[in-house]
Amino acid sequence: MDFIEELTWRGMIHDMMPGTAEQLKKEMTTAYLGIDPTADSLHIGHLVGVMMLKHFQRCGHKPIALVGGATGMIGDPSGKSLERNLLDEPTLRRNQTAIKAQLSKLIDFDSDAPNAAEMVNNYDWMKGQTFLGFIRDIGKLITVNYMMAKDSVKKRFNGEGEGMSFTEFTYQLVQGFDFLTLYETRNCKLQLGGSDQWGNITTGTELIRRKAGGEAFALTCPLIKKADGTKFGKTESGNVWLDPRYTSPYKFYQFWVNVSDEDAERYIKIFTLLDRETVETLIAEHREAPHLRKLQKRLAEEITVMIHSREEYERAVAASSILFGGGAEALKAADERTILEVFDGVPQFEVGRDDLAGGVPFATLCTEKAAIFASKGELRRLVQGGGIALNGTKLAEADRPVTPEDLISDKFLLVQKGKKNYFLLIVK
After folding, report:
1. Is 43 a catalytic residue?
2. pTM, whole model, 2 decimals?
3. How confident is the model at residue 85 (pLDDT cuts 50, 70, 90)?
4. Is-catalytic flag, 55?
5. Phi/psi of residue 41, nearest 5 degrees
6. Separation of alpha carbons 244 and 359, rounded Å
């Protein structure tokens, strides 16, 4: 496989320095990608860069994931209008360990292959640097005029945000020093990153040229946005994380299965390993019958299996069927975790187990034990109109006894009013 050809058809190249393709054809090349360690999980915004590293390794080259322990203590001005929060070393180290565990699902760190991946932390070589030593050895090589010409710096000086601190202004020198260090210690000749990193990356190539007399290269991917121009990877509840503690596999799956047709055509190329022929066939089939959402379903399957597991994917599909046509059978088969994930955010009521002993009339349960309906009269009218369901089955009688036998996972009752209003009764 040819790395540049692979990324080109996938729409994953934004800028590339002349000579990059020739370098990759010449020999097994080492490249690095910087990762922000300010959380103990990656989110899907990181995935474009991670997929670049994965393709790089698949094409026979050696990837390095650089965790920015030192730069995480500074803050990167690129694409931001405010300084980021700074972290202490124990937090950064904990985050690094968690991030490596996530990356290990996607990239080979552990084999004895010559192109096995490495993870490094720039704090390890920056912590011994003195201010005077750094400005003497590095600062003198890059002019202020050169640094000021970078777009990321110009934007901040032209009134975006609250200006730029000296700390942030020096960021491109620190990132350039990372590239120089990896060039000298690991023969790393290529840096990968998002298009907003182009200025910082090319400062590194310039530093390598001036300090080491060597040649290095840069390749960036486009920043991913949704077709409507809004930010990719955000939902109403925030980032879509790779760690199931923060975003459940069900919600992760739901994010991908609900993307627009236009976005699905781009994302299937970027976020899966499907080959070109398979992708083009899927896109053609989807355009023939978009209502089947075949493209979104395959995208969600590929990426959920890759990040979580086949088992978690199948669980997410089963959970989805509860809301979309699975009815009583799907509910009956669901476990506690699935019920809580699917109905997270719907109104919940606690009911005592003793209240169900001997059977309690549904109308009494939903007005006196749990205030789902304002009155029994309202409830009866809705039941007569066929507008109420219990555990996925339409209710025929308002006073139908509800017993412990009705419980889902021996704990839940699901009341549905109309098509979209759900109420979860938790029996304790």
Report:
1. yes
2. 0.85
3. low
4. no
5. -150, 145
6. 38
Asked about 94 being catalytic, the answer comes back as no
Catalytic residue among 15, 36, 58, 84, which? 84
* Cα gap 388→390, rounded to integer Å: 7
Q: Within 10 A of 333 (CB to CB), how many other CB atoms are there? A: 14
> Is there a catalytic annotation at residue 234?
yes
Catalytic position from the list 234, 337, 376, 381: 234
* Catalytic option among 20, 29, 30, 46: 46
Return the pLDDT at 83: 46
399 contacts 362 by C-beta, under 8 angstroms:
yes
Q: Which member of 14, 58, 80, 381 is catalytic?
A: 80
Token pair 């980032």 is found at: 239
- A 10 A CB-CB count for 49 gives 21
* Cβ partners under 8 Å of residue 193, min gap 6: 33, 34, 49, 200, 201, 218, 220, 221
Out of 154, 231, 287, 310, pick the active-site residue. 231
The Cα–Cα gap between 156 and 45 comes to 23
Strands (DSSP E) found in 61-107: 62-67
Mean pLDDT of 214-243: 88
Active site residue 80: yes
14 in catalytic set: no
- Supply the mean pLDDT for the chain: 91
From the candidates 175, 181, 197, 220, which is the catalytic residue? 175
Catalytic, 84? Answer: yes
Short-list 265, 264, 219, CA closest to 59:
219
196 given a catalytic annotation? yes
pLDDT above 50 for 82? no
331-376: pLDDT as tens digits: 888 889 889 888 988 999 999 999 898 899 999 999 999 999 999 9
Give the whole-angstrom CA distance, residue 67 versus residue 281: 38
Amino acid identity at 174: V
Q: Percent of the chain at pLDDT above 70?
A: 95
Kindly state the average pLDDT of the residues 56-76. 86
Token pair in block for residue 43? 């989110």
Contact 91, 191 (CB under 8 A): no
Residue of 40, 76, 178, 196 with catalytic role = 196
Please state, in angstroms and rounded to a whole number, the distance separating the CA atoms of residues 208 and 217. 10
Going by pLDDT thresholds of 50, 70 and 90, the confidence category of residue 300 is: very high
Closest by CA position to 3, among listed 184, 305, 221: 221
Phi, psi of 182 (to 5 degrees): -70, -30
Shortest CA distance to 119 belongs to which of 42, 216, 195? 42
The distance from CA 400 to its chain's CA centroid, rounded to whole angstroms, is 46
Active site residue 167: no
Q: What is the pLDDT of residue 322?
A: 84
